[in-house]
Amino acid sequence: xxxxxxxxxxxxxxxxxxxxxxxxxxxxxxxxxxxxxxxxxxxxxxxxxxxxxxxxxxxxxxxxxxxxxxxxxxxxxxxxxxxxxxxxxxxxxxxxxxxxxxxxxxxxxxxxxxxxxxxxxxxxxxxxxxxxxxxxxxxxxxxxxxxxxxxxxxxxxxxxxxxxxxxxxxxxxxxxxxxxxxxxxxxxxxxxxxxxxxxxxxxxxxxxxxxxxxxxxxxxxxxxxx
Length: 226
What we know:
Blueprint: H1 10-63, E1 75-76, H2 81-86, E2 89-92, E3 97-103, E4 114-118, E5 124-128, E6 138-150, E7 155-156, E8 160-161, E9 163-172, E10 183-185, E11 194-203, E12 213-220
Parallel strand pairs: 1-5
Antiparallel strand pairs: 2-3, 3-6, 4-5, 4-6, 6-7, 7-8, 9-10, 9-11, 11-12
């Protein structure tokens, strides 16, 4: 007796196609989700790297603000160093500029705006630009560094782009002899009261793959001002 041959019915075929389509869509969704996660994480990593580059550079220079050599009294040959020495750090809110008068912490900081030469015993003299030390003298290169935030272009000029916000606050003491911070202000009346600097930086992704990220750091001044 011959056995009858049977194929797949229309219902079975449609069911198999539906299940296959569901599985395919699930795999596609999985790959799309994994790709989007990778892209967003990559964008976030680039933002963190930009923030780390800028803030680490700023922290190093802020910590060296007010370090003008080994003696407190410095003769000013050309008369241009005294003003910088009296106000070595300030924030210009109108121009969105942070200006630092800072000692060159390394050999790649750039050209010196002033050079203080001192025997670290009886004399210290500030000269404009670079200058070689004489016998028994130590050399302290001093630079004027300015960080400018261009709100229209969204950048810290010459350093990083995609900046949506940038602000600076100064932690000040209650008196010139105080060591603890009593409050944070944008423009302290007396630079001698400044004990720390708080920098806030917000970066944005132009492609909107991730949300804006805000980074905050606080740098304590190593050198007492005033």
